[in-house]
């Protein structure tokens, strides 16, 4: 009988750009306030990449930290998957740029665009490579420079987003690791959360930033996010024959504290067992789940052997979860 192989997190890392923009800073630019932003979203500040600092730079720093934590050399990697919706270039993929910088030549490296679910999608793909025996050591990254798409004059979106990256190194393990992953998408709701320009559709020459901007119907996205996350959490528990009280830590996408609280309520989970970092960096899209995970690991909250539930929801719509024994 062939032995079951799991993908286990061997190390985590993250990186936030140096520049911090507080809610009070934003209130000087648009008609908003720290009270409004904190009450509606839980966000207090966000990090903004410096001029010339790219998604690939953030990803590289997070990856180096994850490799160090795992005690793995870049040359040992046999897969790199990077979730992003703000790649450095149209091509090559940001994963290829990071691969070169790490000195990990030869292994497959590619990007996954699932907006805010990018890391959960990337983790799922890497898990399947490891389970199938196609890879033994994988680097999974979520990295974004979302502020490059932000219209700083639009208070409905400018207050929400930030830049950042997180990464994990996965190693094949015969004992335990990722127990299940669940991915979903619904392309019919495109207009509720989208960026209306691109290479193939074309850019808008007469608009600021060539028309590149986040368009979001916040209220609708909120409702869809809560419903989809409720359902994927149920699906994950049922698939594993678990009770909601079995989960040690919820590590959610950090978009809005009220969405996070709704999922915690569904799990009957006290907020002390939910990792919340949205106050410190806002919505970093693909970067958010691994940023929260790394913060929880490095602070000593998350311990080896504990059961973690990761989940995310984003543009597409896309959503998904991963249940793992850390
Ligand atoms: N400051 C002050 N007032 C504001 C601001 C602001 N920054 N933004 C909006 N308002 C006003 C509105 O104009 C409105 O005023 P009105 O009542 O006079 O018309 C009022 O505040 C309420 O606006 P709503 O949009 O109804 O506020 P809501 O409670 O829905 O909060 C928010 C908005 C925070 C955007 C929320 O809907 C949300 O978080 N949605 C989900 C976003 C999300 O999770 N996205 C995830 C994926 S992102 C990705 O994939 C890239």
Mean pLDDT, rounded to whole units?
A: 97
- What ligands are attached or bound here? acetyl coenzyme *A
Number of strands: 13
Question: What is the general shape?
Answer: globular
Instruction: State the CATH topology of the largest domain.
Output: Peroxisomal Thiolase, Chain A, domain 1
Largest beta sheet: what is the strand line-up?
1-7-6-4-5
Strand percentage: 15-25%
How does CATH name the architecture of the largest domain? 3-Layer(aba) Sandwich
How would you characterize the largest beta sheet? 5 strands, mixed
> Secondary-structure element sequence?
EEHHEHEHEHEHEEEEHEHHHEE
The radius of gyration computed from the alpha-carbon positions, rounded to a whole number of angstroms, is: 19 Å
Q: Please estimate the helix content.
A: 25-40%
Low-confidence stretches: none
> Total domains, how many?
2
CATH superfamily of the largest domain: Thiolase/Chalcone synthase
Separation of the first and last Cα atoms: 26 Å
Please write the CATH class name of the largest domain: Alpha Beta
Which structural category fits the helices and strands? alpha/beta
């Amino acid at each position: 009988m062939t032995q079951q192989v799991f993908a286990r997190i061997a190390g985590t890392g993250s990186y936030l750009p140096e520049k911090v923009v507080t809610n009070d800073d934003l209130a000087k630019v648009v008609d908003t306030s720290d009270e409004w932003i904190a009450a509606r979203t839980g966000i207090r500040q966000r990090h903004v990449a410096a001029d010339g600092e790219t998604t690939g730079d953030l990803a590289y720093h997070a990856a180096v930290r994850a490799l160090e934590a795992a005690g793995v050399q870049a040359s040992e990697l046999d897969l790199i998957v990077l979730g992003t919706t703000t790649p450095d270039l149209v091509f090559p993929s940001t994963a290829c740029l990071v691969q070169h910088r790490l000195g990990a030549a030869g292994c497959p490296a590619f990007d996954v665009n699932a907006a805010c679910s990018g890391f959960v999608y990337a983790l799922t793909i890497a898990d399947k490579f490891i389970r199938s025996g196609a890879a033994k050591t994988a680097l999974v990254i979520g990295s974004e420079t979302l502020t490059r798409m932000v219209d700083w004059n639009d208070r409905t979106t400018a207050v929400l987003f930030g830049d950042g990256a997180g990464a994990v190194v996965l190693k094949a393990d015969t004992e335990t690791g990722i127990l299940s992953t669940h991915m979903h998408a619904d392309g019919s709701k495109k207009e509720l959360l989208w960026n209306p320009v691109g290479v193939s559709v074309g850019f808008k020459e007469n608009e600021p930033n060539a028309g590149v901007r986040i368009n979001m119907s916040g209220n609708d996205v909120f409702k869809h996010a809560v419903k989809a996350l409720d359902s994927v959490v149920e699906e994950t528990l049922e698939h594993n024959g678990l009770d909601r009280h079995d989960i040690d830590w919820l590590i959610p996408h950090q978009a809005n504290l009220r969405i996070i609280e709704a999922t915690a309520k569904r799990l009957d989970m006290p907020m002390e067992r939910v990792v919340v970092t949205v106050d410190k960096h806002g919505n970093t899209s693909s970067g958010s789940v691994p940023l929260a995970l790394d913060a929880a690991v490095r602070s000593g909250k998350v311990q080896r052997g504990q059961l973690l539930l990761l989940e995310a929801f984003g543009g597409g719509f896309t959503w998904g979860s991963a249940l793992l024994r850390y």
